[in-house]
Design a protein that fits this description.
Structural class: alpha+beta
Strand content: 15-25%
Strand order of the largest sheet: 2-3-1-4
Low-confidence stretches: none
Distance between the termini: 18 Å
Radius of gyration: 14 Å
Order of helices and strands: EHEEHEH
CATH architecture: 2-Layer Sandwich
Mean pLDDT: 86
Shape: globular
CATH class: Alpha Beta
Number of strands: 4
CATH superfamily: Transposase IS200-like
Number of domains: 1
């Protein structure tokens, strides 16, 4: 089980309600074709948190490659207006954060954190721990 965070290219605020809904739809299609289960998907304006469970045959890098490449391609198809904010044909930044769930908290803690994306506390920062 992995906690993956993928920022949008140039940290642009492109994850509108429409793009977020399409992203979740795409992820559920990915589940059908690959042995990847999206337990939670939480987005903020410029990044997305995924709580993902997969089989051991996929190394973490492959998981991220599958998720980023398929979601980017399909979002550009479904939401062409995003292209005017993200030149160069790339939706995601090159980097990402990936952690196993047991390394920094249990499944429920991370699940709650991912669900709360977009809901900012009084000091402007979500707390994981």
């Amino acid at each position: 089980m992995y906690h993956i965070v993928c920022p949008s290219r140039y940290r642009r605020t492109v994850l509108s309600a429409t793009v977020d809904a399409k992203l979740k739809e795409i992820c559920f299609e990915i589940q059908k074709r690959y042995e990847i289960t999206f337990l939670e998907i939480g987005s903020d304006d410029d990044h997305v948190h995924f709580l993902v469970q997969s089989v051991p045959m996929y190394i973490p890098k492959q998981l991220v490659q599958i998720i980023k490449s398929l979601t980017a391609r399909e979002i550009f198809k479904a939401c062409p207006e995003v292209k005017k904010y993200l030149w160069g044909g790339k939706f995601w930044s090159e980097g990402y954060f990936l952690s196993t769930v047991g390394a920094h908290g249990n499944e429920q803690m991370i699940k709650n954190y991912v669900q709360q994306q977009g809901n900012i506390e009084s000091n402007g920062q979500l707390k994981l721990f």
